Amino acid sequence: MSTAQTPGRLLSVLGVSFGIAGAVGGTIGAGILRTPGLVAAQLGSGPWVVAAWLAGGLYALLGANAVAELGASLPLAGGWYVYARRCFGDAAGFTVGWMDWVGHCTGIAWVAVTIGEYAAFLLPGLEPHGKLVGLAVLLLFTLIQLLGVEAGSGSQKLLSLAKAVAFLAVVAACFLLGGPDTRAAAAAAIPTDPAGLTPVGWTGLAVALVFSLQAIVTTYDGWHSPIYFSEEFSEPQDDLPRSLIGGVLAVIALYTLFNLALLRVLPLPVIAVSSLPVADAAALLFGAFGGQAITVLALLSLAGLINASIMGAPRILYGLSRDRLFSPLVDRVNRGGTPTVALVLTSLASALLVLGGDFTVLLGLAAFLYVSLYLVGIVCLFVLRLREPERPRPYRAWGHPWSTAIVLLGSVAFLVGALRNDTANSGWALLLIGVSVPLFQATRALTPAEAP
């Protein structure tokens, strides 16, 4: 019986088109609508703003280059924990998987609540029921995933395509309709202080770049989404590297065009004081209709993000369960190729976070957790290159060790900066990592050993 017909196992039916859609859908969310204002406020110069976005994209691209080697040589479901377990053993693998799954559930809950808030902008009658809208969205995408991996793949491709077309439409409108007149109108309508935007000296510029890159790296987060489906690509040795690198390149292009488009319509000081600069640009170009158009853009971005997250997170629990690091009941897979028990657990945990309402601490530490995962992956590449030089590597990271070292140093610098500037959330992140130790011991005690 062919793999695609065998019930109870993941199906190797995905291709590059899904991988790129997953990377784009898992990366582009509401963050890109807000982050340009934060970056502009820090740097105060259009060329520096564009350079910072390109630098953040380069960091993600070098990360994708490194992880492509890991994924192609270890094409197993589960994401980062697969590499940590291979290098450092079961306990480290469980800790990384736990961090990753909690981060996913937190992100899913935040997206669900945010969708409820944006929906209330379009339909004001929904405002008192924002959480119910979020839960309904969560249920909808859970049901789509229960249909099987092909339904999840198809929905991701459709949502990512719609998202890309919508962003490109905004970019085209800004370039066609924007110019000196719109910049002058914005400058006259919105009070600014251009002199206060320029960093003082090279030291001030360096500090501004660090803060900007922290925000930008968070906005690029999600580029690694294809690794959770390594086992489900029909040809992982080729499909996974192409998905990772192609997805990052697509996001870099969209983000760069988006920032250039904003600069075409708005002067930099106006972008710097705006919490949602694209809305200001849309208001200048389209009047009252602009706010609704940007709300639709945000909803498309969030829909693709929640679909990718709900599809990827169960693969983490599935992999942990199959490797006997979690309850063996969780590796159940339906005929359509969906890990059903893992999906239900993920959706329930996310729903509880939605109902709990205050998951701001978890959301605040998510960036710390995700960069920690990047760091683990990069360290694993160095370790496996030294420990297993004869392992087949269908894709080898170009520029290694220098290209990989850049990501390593960048990740370390990001975490050091987070520990110094966001001590509270970083402390909560470290506590969450520490909780994984007794959890691992408990699951190991309750999980039967694999038969010899």
From TrEMBL:
It is found in: Membrane. It is a multi-pass membrane protein. The keyword Transmembrane applies. InterPro entries: AA/rel_permease1 (IPR002293), AminoAcid_Transporter (IPR050598). Keywords: Membrane, Transmembrane, Transmembrane helix. The keyword Nucleotide-binding does not apply. The chain crosses the membrane at residues 12-33, 45-68, 101-120, 132-149, 161-179, 200-220, 240-258, 339-356, 362-386, 398-419. This is APC family permease. It comes from Cyanobium gracile UHCC 0139.
